[in-house]
Amino acid sequence: MFTTFTRHAAVIALLTASCSQAFGYGAVGHNTVGEIADQLIQGHRAAAEVKRILGSVPLRDIAVWDDCVKGIDPLKDFQYTSTGRFPECAVFENPDEEARMRAYVQRNNEQCKPKPGDESCHKQYHYSNVALQRGHYEAGAVGTSDHDLVPALKSAIQVLRGGKANPPMDLTEREALALVAHTLGDMHQPLHMGSIYLDADGKIYDPDKQGADPLTHTVGANAITVPRADGSPGGNLHSYWDGLPNRLTAAQLAALPAQARLVTPTGGSPDGWVDVWASESLLEAQLAFDGMRFGPRQQTPRGPRWAATLPADYDARSTEQVRLELIKGGARLAQLLMSIWPDKP
């Protein structure tokens, strides 16, 4: 049967072939996590609550909203400046939706008091930069903040449960649902949680034990370059991982919802799920860096850079790792929403 997901998977495959992704997991990854959850909550109270909040917008579309809002430019009177650039954002490129995006960015731009060189607050909700050596997420460690990926997701969940977001975050119910749908995807992209820190010789550095040093920060592997197939310098390792869902075929994408139905819910109270998932993602980040070698630090106009040498099986290994992460991300989004809005007896 040519299911709705199969149709969406085919569209995603065409999108992948026609454009590059610039955001988070990329549209393919975030759409996929949202689409899996759309499928898994069908027939449950959670589906009705999602529709109440989003109207006709499905989770697969709202899952990219928090990347689309990056098109709002605070230096241009908070105008939307990305019209037509990203096909995944087209659904939000109208006056009403742009007004929503503008209001969100205005309330979540400088409230976290960004330091010089830091991104707008709302952009910092998408990631943590915990050192790989930690093995688990712990607030206060180098690379964490009160508005990184973990507290941002927790605050959004709190809003959906009827509470308020913890400062500096300021979220409406709709924004909270969008952030939950998006950050569940980000949390299952390991380099959005774990970061490797390197010294001048390309040796692994521990900022919590050796002292925080900006010159060792790879910024979630954005400062690590990876070679192209011909050996010439390529893009950065973080972008490589963001683009891995693009390597999955339409058939592989279409198979994910059925596989997600087999994912066992995380043990314990739902109140503790985010911490479990964050720590698990750090272990996945360790796998992502396993077998990699790094050259010495190179100073560039954009800051320090390190060239990586990847293991021979890295493409196949990392693509499979991401496929499994998408399955878990979609399943857990559905399970989380059904825990927030459980079916009535």
Describe the structure.
The structure is a single chain. Helix 2 packs across helix 14 (314-340) and helix 12 (250-260) crosses helix 14 (314-340). 46% of the residues lie in helices and 9% in strands. With 345 residues, it is of the alpha+beta class. The protein has 14 helices and 11 strands. The protein has helices spanning 4-18, 26-40, 45-54, 59-62, 65-68, 95-107, 121-124, 149-160, 173-187, 207-210, 237-242, 250-260, 273-289, 314-340; strands at residues 72-73, 79-80, 130-131, 194-195, 197-198, 204-205, 224-227, 233-236, 293-294, 298-300, 303-309. The strands form 4 sheets. Strands 7, 8, 9, 10 and 11 form a 5-stranded mixed sheet that branches. The chain has a two-stranded antiparallel ribbon with strand order 1-2. Strands 3-4 form a two-stranded parallel sheet. Strand 7 and strand 8 form a beta hairpin. It has a single domain (4-340), classed as P1 Nuclease.
Which labels suit this protein?
345 residues; alpha+beta; P1 Nuclease
Short description:
The chain is α+β, with helices and mostly antiparallel strands.
Total number of domains: 1
Our count of helices gives 14
The overall average pLDDT, rounded, is: 93
According to CATH, the fold-level topology is: P1 Nuclease
Based on the coordinates given, report the CATH architecture: Orthogonal Bundle
CATH superfamily: P1 Nuclease
Q: Outline the biggest β-sheet.
A: 5 strands, mixed
Approximately what portion of the residues adopt beta-strand conformation? 5-15%
Please give the share of residues in helix. Answer: 40-55%
CATH class: Mainly Alpha
| C-alpha Rg (nearest Å) | 19 Å
Number of strands: 11
Terminal-residue CA separation = 33 Å
Structural class: alpha+beta
The H/E string reads HHHHHEEHHEHHEEEHEEHHHEEEH
Which word captures the global form? globular
